[in-house]
Specification:
Distance between the termini: 37 Å
Helix content: 25-40%
Structural class: alpha/beta
């Protein structure tokens, strides 16, 4: 469990992120004037903890935003493939290569980048709790070299749990996650807290690597009424293993993001990772061109939340689609 009185999971429920202007260092602002940066090609270091569709979509959104802003870029792309040691090395490598900005795509990637530099601007995405991860001290006015976008919407957890209880009649919910991922611990604790309010019982299982996921899912299967998979990089990278168990045992599998529904999860209250990556890319463009300093760019959360249901997955998991869901959800096949 992470410590600290202020976490993004609590603050998002009561705080709107306001744009506030304040001074910052030249290195954290990107430096240079608009005229000086007009024809410059910026070297952007990209660090990602593991390959999976959600993170990949965030990077695509990031690239698209910079393209739309007319910022010339050259990317140095690194992927840790889930290895903590490699993740740390990537941060150091990008600093040594003197990139102009680092796009850190995930909580572990962001932490490694910040450990490697306090000068080069870092824009993160796919981070759940930047306060708990100690990436920033405040959300509305970052005072260091880091800002970005989070993959958490304050209504996602309550809405998902209400659906499990009211629409699926669930009582015990399986939570599968990597206890070594700070973002996952934050989410699981938030889910447990919300479950206590609505009368649901959490049943947890922890994994260390993607190879552990299927066995852990099988261990949970006989004890639960539904799976709820948070945005855990380890588990999501091996999501097909959980889907296979959910289908064979006829257990609804709900995810925390929409890309997992396309892959075969039954449903999710979520948002587009492309969109939060795009938001991060717009922030990066402002930093690189000198339009704004990091202290003028508050941490941003997703703008949109919607329920998406996979009809084919519902059939495979033994779930009958209710007519009233037509007004609540979008469907994919």
């Amino acid at each position: 469990m992470f410590k600290g009185k202020r976490t993004i999971l609590g603050m998002m429920l009561v705080t709107s992120l306001a744009l506030t202007a304040c001074g910052n260092s030249q290195s954290a602002s990107g430096g240079g004037t608009a005229k000086e940066n007009k024809d410059k090609t910026f070297k952007i270091g990209v660090t990602q903890i593991v390959e999976h569709p959600s993170l990949d979509e965030a990077f695509k959104g990031f690239q698209k935003a910079l393209e739309e802003k007319g910022v010339k870029t050259k990317y140095e792309i690194k992927n840790a493939q889930g290895d903590p040691s490699t993740n740390t090395t990537i941060g150091t490598t990008l600093v040594n290569d003197k990139v102009d900005l680092i796009f850190a795509n995930s909580t572990p990637s962001s932490q490694a980048a910040l450990a490697a530099t306090r000068k080069i601007p870092i824009v993160f995405s796919s981070v759940t709790d930047p306060l708990g991860a100690k990436l920033v001290k405040t959300l509305d006015k970052p005072d260091g070299n880091v800002t970005g976008t989070v993959d958490f919407h304050p209504e996602a957890i309550p809405s998902t749990l209400k659906f499990i209880k009211d629409e699926l009649g669930g009582k015990k919910v399986g939570l599968l996650y990597n206890a070594g991922e700070q973002n996952s611990v934050a989410q699981v604790e938030a889910v447990k807290k919300e479950m206590s309010k609505v009368g649901l019982e959490p049943v947890t299982a922890s994994v260390a690597t993607s190879a552990d996921v299927k066995q852990a899912a099988e261990a949970l299967a006989g004890k639960i009424d539904a799976f709820y998979i948070v945005t855990d990089n380890t588990v999501v990278s091996a999501l097909e293993s959980v889907i296979a168990v959910a289908e064979s045992k006829k257990i609804p599998l709900l995810a925390a993001e929409l890309d997992s529904v396309k892959r075969g999860s039954f449903a999710a209250y979520g948002f587009s990772y492309f969109d939060i990556g795009h938001q991060a890319g717009e922030m990066a463009a402002q930093i690189l061109t000198g339009e704004k300093k990091i202290s003028e760019l508050p941490v941003q959360n997703p703008d949109k939340l919607k329920l998406v249901i996979n009809k084919k997955a519902a059939e495979q998991m033994g779930i009958k689609i209710k007519p009233e869901w037509d007004k609540m959800a979008e469907y994919v096949n």
